[in-house]
Design brief:
single chain; alpha/beta; elongated
């Protein structure tokens, strides 16, 4: 009986399992409905691909103006301009009162010029320092070269008539050579003497330019600094280069500093401002002056000198103008702490490299009024410190005019190097950061810099150093403006990872359904094609 019941149960289970496996299928879609659905999916993708994606790329892409990268790299690598420096020398000869032996005919003057020129240049065609000697305006492409030096050759008819003497004029670029009975033998000896004296004048300038270009792509071939002492001296110079109601400060500035500032105007635009801090006390961070009974002086230790530029009690403005500031601090101590000197040296003034200078005024009268005459030694000290801080060469010490011309050559060369380096850095930046924007203003500034660099290079080679300085300054300003463009600097700190983090939450929910339904329809289309082929 149980067996029969078991068979019945088994038989009864069979229809139930068959019902479960044979699920009802959805009715087949009509061709019109299938086409409609596919057209809808295709329409969405067409909108995304044809309108959405181009619009997104257009609104999110960074504009990159075309830059002359090859020219920029050529300047940075020193290939666009091989610098050499001509010095235009004017040679004038004047006779004397010792008879025909000292009289010069035009032919003899020309002969002397022809003898001096190869002696100055040494017969070396590879020397980048070229001396152009003439008695009138030079030719051969150097017709407008700046006059580097005027040599005045004349008879020494003074009390030392038997001696050969040379001197530089302090306010003009003139070298006076006086010869007498003891002049170098013959015209050849006189030419050698002239060449030697001119070489002595320009040797510091040649060393400075060689030092300036050494270690750069513009380094001069076949030239090198002669001694380690010269290298150390130029290193020290390069490291350095970078007011009261009852005082007649304006008069003193006008009398003692303005002539020097006017002379420097062709090289740097300098403006003067003054400020006063009354009853200033020393900073608590320094020990302060100590009275020395033996010398009856108040003395400051060397480590306390920093208090004159860092004292919090002296709220002097650290920057007055729009450009770099050269600070000159005049400190007038109280009568109770006067005279005030530096303990180690006994001096009353010192130079702070790349910052300015400090001078202590130890007045004997201790009045509240200081005249222009009282301020004269301080102003002369500041004038000497200013020449060091602007990088004015120390030689030749006798002629300020020649030192200023030397500085203009060095400054023009330095600005050419600086702008070339900046253009090279900008070129490398644009190649490395492909997503950074390059506006048209950057391209315009780069082109301006390249144009003025070319003109500056041509002017240097032609000996037009004042014009070269003007073009080099414009080129450096344009290259700095291009490199520090605000829109470019901002995008340097906005990497692609940030963009992904912004767009994925917005586009992800929209893109996933479109991708999935697109893949599903492609699969159905593929299956339908297979059925057609197999059927």
């Amino acid at each position: 009986m149980d067996e029969a019941n078991g068979n019945k149960a088994a038989v009864a289970d069979i229809p139930s399992s068959a019902a479960e496996t044979a699920k009802p299928e959805p009715p087949p879609e009509s061709q019109s409905l299938l086409r409609t659905r596919r057209w809808i999916v295709l329409s969405f993708w067409a909108i995304v691909v044809c309108f959405g994606l181009p619009h997104w790329l257009w609104t999110t892409s960074t504009y990159r103006a075309s830059l002359p990268l090859e020219q920029m790299n050529n300047w940075a690598e020193g290939k666009a301009c091989q610098l050499y420096f001509p010095f235009n020398i004017k040679l004038g000869v004047r006779g004397g009162s010792y008879g025909d032996v000292y009289r010069w005919t035009p032919g003899e003057v020309d002969q002397l010029v022809e003898q001096v020129r190869p002696l100055l240049n040494g017969g070396n065609d590879l020397d980048p320092f070229l001396f152009l000697v003439d008695t009138h305006e030079p030719d051969c492409g150097y017709a407008h070269a700046d006059e580097a030096l005027t040599v005045s050759l004349e008879v020494n008819d003074g009390r030392n008539a038997h001696e050969c003497m040379s001197s530089l004029e302090p306010w003009s670029s003139t070298l006076s050579l006086r010869y007498g009975l003891a002049r170098p033998k013959g015209r050849d000896g006189l030419a050698q003497w002239v060449a030697d004296e001119v070489r002595v004048v320009f040797q510091p300038q040649i060393e400075s330019l060689t030092y300036l270009l050494s270690g750069t792509p513009f380094a001069l071939e076949h030239t090198a600094l002669t001694t380690a002492a010269t290298q150390a001296k130029l290193d020290a110079r390069n490291t350095r280069a970078f007011n009261p109601a009852a005082w007649e400060i304006e008069e003193a500035l006008h009398e003692y500093l303005e002539p020097l500032i006017d002379a420097l105007k062709a090289i740097s635009n300098i403006t003067v401002d003054t400020q006063v801090q009354l009853h200033a006390s020393f900073s608590p961070s320094i020990a302060g002056p100590v009275y020395d009974k033996s010398s009856k002086e108040w003395k400051l230790r060397k480590e306390d000198l920093s208090g004159f530029i860092n004292a919090a009690e002296w709220p002097l403005s650290p920057s007055i103008g729009s450009g770099p500031t050269i600070n000159f601090v005049l400190y007038a101590p109280t009568p109770a702490q006067s005279p005030l000197v530096i303990a180690e040296t006994g001096g009353s003034s010192w130079l702070v490299p790349q910052w300015g200078g400090v001078a202590i005024l130890n007045s004997q009268t201790h009045t509240t009024k200081l005249s222009k005459l009282d301020l004269e030694p301080i102003m002369l000290t500041f004038a000497d410190q200013l020449t060091s801080l602007v990088g004015l060469p120390a030689e030749p010490a006798q002629s300020l005019a020649l030192r200023l011309k030397a500085l203009s050559r060095e400054r023009a060369t330095s600005l050419i190097l600086s702008s070339s380096s900046t253009l090279g850095a900008l070129s490398r930046l644009t190649l490395k950061l492909t997503s950074i924007a390059i506006p048209d203003t950057v391209a315009a500034s780069v082109q301006t810099s390249l144009n003025h660099l070319t003109l500056a290079c041509s002017d240097v080679k032609a000996g037009r150093y004042e014009s070269a300085l003007a073009h080099a300054r414009t080129a450096d300003e344009a290259s700095e403006k291009a490199f520090f463009e605000p829109s470019m600097v901002g995008q340097v700190y906005f990497p692609d990872e940030h963009k992904v983090a912004v767009y994925v939450p917005l586009l992800g929910p929209m893109a996933v359904p479109l991708v999935m339904i697109g893949l599903k329809e492609l699969a159905k289309f593929r299956d339908a094609r297979r059925k057609v082929k197999t059927g």
